[in-house]
Write a structure and sequence with these properties.
This protein has 334 residues and is an alpha+beta fold. It has 7 helices and 17 strands. α5 runs parallel beside α6.
Length: 334
């Protein structure tokens, strides 16, 4: 297979290796070795080391061509930190791209009834990437893992259907001992295929079927509501609010207060702000409650479930982490 700028390689017939920095011709690549020198080396005598890849967008990036006998796949991989189950203390989760496609991916974890994206980015061909590392005792809390993936190449390529897969982990899966050894990983792993059926060029249909045409005819053109004035539309952006429920933001001093008293005061302030937002036709209100032991978030969630005209979800992870709840007031959107 071909190499690409940035690939880590080792020498086939001698000790050592380095990074592919440029290509001399179709048979020879320049390898930067440990001391910083560049040496020419025959490509057929180089073995790729499939670790994380940082694509050099300014360099000459060539697509890899998989061997004909290799079936392209993408895996979600679980690697324990020991091969004896009784001695395992941590699990590492990876996305492993065993294909000739580059990936745009988003990795999400389930939190309550919703998913929260915690990592996204690009992954090169035949590369793996560490997504998350957790303690063994936290396995139940990290039971659902979601991968959304788009596929592309730098040259012409057969189009692929995007991936949206959820992997569920439980103790039964680990007790079945379906672990396998793989040269890319130190310890035996569990591997879950999330993409297997890569389409070839001759499998792609370029003509629409009659069914496709009928479906297209049924798609109605979207037209904005002509009755909605600009002033009304502009008011929506004003009718949003952010409320910080941290106790130090609500009172000047809470010295001597117990946890129960603090929670009670925070909930009272939350209820007051929520009622005000509903009665004053707010569209959205975000409550910042922090992470803590989760008690305040639980109380807020219990209250919100009593309002059928509301929907709520975790606030923006980028802005608040896991420490905020976003509430949408649907009755005020009419």
């Amino acid at each position: 297979m071909k190499l690409r700028i940035g690939d880590k390689v080792r020498f086939l017939n001698e000790e050592g290796g380095g990074i592919v920095v440029r290509l001399k011709d179709k048979d020879t690549a320049y390898i930067e070795i440990e001391n910083g020198f560049e040496i020419p080396y025959l490509i057929k005598l180089l073995v790729p080391i499939h670790t994380e890849l940082v694509i050099n967008s300014a360099g000459e990036n060539l697509d890899l061509e998989p061997d004909n006998d290799i079936e392209e796949r993408v895996f979600f991989v679980v690697e324990p930190d020991h091969e004896l189950p009784i001695l395992v203390s941590e699990y590492c989760f990876y996305i492993y791209n065993c294909s000739s496609y580059n990936l745009h991916f988003t990795y999400s974890l389930k939190d309550g009834n919703l998913f929260q994206a915690i990592k996204h980015g690009e992954l090169g061909q035949f590369q793996k990437l560490l997504l998350k590392k957790i303690n063994k005792t936290m396995l139940k809390e990290y039971a659902f893992h979601k991968l959304d993936i788009l596929y592309y190449k730098n040259s012409h390529y057969p189009a692929q259907i995007p991936t949206a897969e959820i992997v569920q982990l439980n103790e039964y899966i680990f007790k079945k001992n379906n672990f396998i050894r793989h040269h890319e990983f130190k310890f035996p792993i569990l591997a879950f295929p999330v993409k297997e059926n890569f389409m070839r060029a001759n499998e792609i249909k370029y003509k629409l079927t009659e069914y496709d045409v009928e479906r297209l005819k049924k798609i109605k053109e979207f037209k904005p509501d002509a009755k909605k004035s600009k002033a009304h539309g502009a008011s929506l952006s004003v009718k949003e609010k952010e409320v910080d429920l941290h106790i130090e933001e609500l009172v000047d001093s809470f010295k001597g207060w117990g946890n129960a008293q603090i929670i009670q005061y925070q909930i009272k302030h939350f209820q007051k702000e929520l009622d005000h937002a509903i009665s004053n036709s707010f569209y959205k209100i975000v409550f910042i409650h922090g992470v803590g032991n989760g008690r305040l978030k639980q109380e807020i969630t219990a209250i919100l479930k009593n309002y059928p005209e509301l929907s709520f979800q975790d606030g923006s992870y980028k802005k608040y982490g896991f420490g905020a709840t976003e509430v949408i007031i649907h009755q005020n959107r009419k």
